[in-house]
Write a structure and sequence with these properties.
The complex is a heterodimer of chains A (about 120) and B (about 110).
Chain A (H helix, E strand, L loop, with lengths): L2 E5 L3 E2 L5 E8 L8 E8 L6 E6 L5 E3 L7 E6 L4 E6 L8 E10 L4 E6 L3 E5 L2
Parallel strand pairs in A: 2-11
Antiparallel strand pairs in A: 1-3, 3-8, 4-5, 4-9, 5-6, 7-8, 9-10, 9-11
Chain B lengths: L8 E4 L5 E6 L11 E6 L6 E4 L13 E6 L2 E6 L8 E8 L5 E3 L3 E5 L1
Parallel strand pairs in B: 1-9
Antiparallel strand pairs in B: 2-6, 3-4, 3-7, 5-6, 7-8, 7-9
The chains are: A mainly beta (about 120), B mainly beta (about 110).
Chain lengths: ~120, ~110
């Protein structure tokens, strides 16, 4: 069973960069069928998909965040990471890392980390 | 990409059935049979209930079922129980190879 765990600072300053890492256990980051994703949820609001990275490093980002997002993967450490720059208070949210499985006949976000709250404040 | 459209809230009494709709476009819900549904209790991560429109992961009660017609997907919960009170989100893979969520629906069990 794939398990995911987010780590990183719980506080980021306005205009700076938010950085989070997700560690994968119980499965391989190098699987061709998995797309390692980040999803966020502002307090009291709904879920927003941020983007994904594959084990090869190919990425796809939410168009609304694309200009500020960078994702990377380290297969040797079984980790993938998120950087979101020029943050504002609107980026305050619980950030989830997740694993999406996609094949020719199936595609879904099936595995979720527990989430980590990142607050943007000076 | 625009969020999928869900009702903000639904309610039902124990034992009843309710249905939550999820309206999208021909570029997301209507493009593939890759619609998922998640249940989220307060302070918890979302939990996968339905994937690929109507499939249930192992361990999910058969009281939960999913369907799709055109650009609209639906989640039906039968035999409502108190523990079903939660937020529910739909999600769809899109023709741009991205994912999009619905705005969420709060289910109240009366």
């Amino acid at each position: 069973q794939v398990q995911l765990q987010e780590s990183g600072p719980g506080l980021a300053k306005p205009s700076e960069t938010l950085s989070l890492t997700c560690t994968v256990s119980g499965g391989s980051v190098s699987s061709v069928s998995y797309y390692w994703s980040w999803i966020r949820q502002p307090p009291g609001k709904g879920l927003e998909w941020i983007g994904y990275i594959s084990y090869t490093g190919s990425t796809n980002y939410n168009p609304s965040l694309k200009s500020r997002v960078t994702m990377s993967v380290d297969t040797s450490k079984k980790q993938f990471s998120l950087k979101l720059n020029s943050v504002t208070a609107a980026d305050t949210a619980v950030y989830y890392c997740a694993g999406a499985y996609c094949s020719r006949t199936s595609c879904y976000i099936g595995y979720w980390g527990q989430g980590t709250l990142v607050t943007v404040s000076s | 990409q625009s969020a999928l459209t869900q009702p903000a809230s639904v309610s039902g009494s124990p034992g009843q059935s309710i249905t939550i709709s999820c309206a999208g476009t021909s570029s997301d819900v209507g493009a593939y049979n890759y619609v998922s549904w998640y249940q989220q209790h307060p302070g918890k991560a979302p939990n996968l209930l339905i994937y690929d429109v109507s499939k249930r992961p192992s361990g999910v009660s058969n009281r939960f079922s999913g369907s799709k017609s055109g650009n609209t997907a639906s989640l039906t919960i039968s035999g409502l129980q108190a523990e079903d009170e939660a937020d529910y989100y739909c999600n769809s893979y899109t023709s741009s190879s991205t994912w999009v969520f619905g705005g969420g629906t709060k289910l109240t069990v009366l």
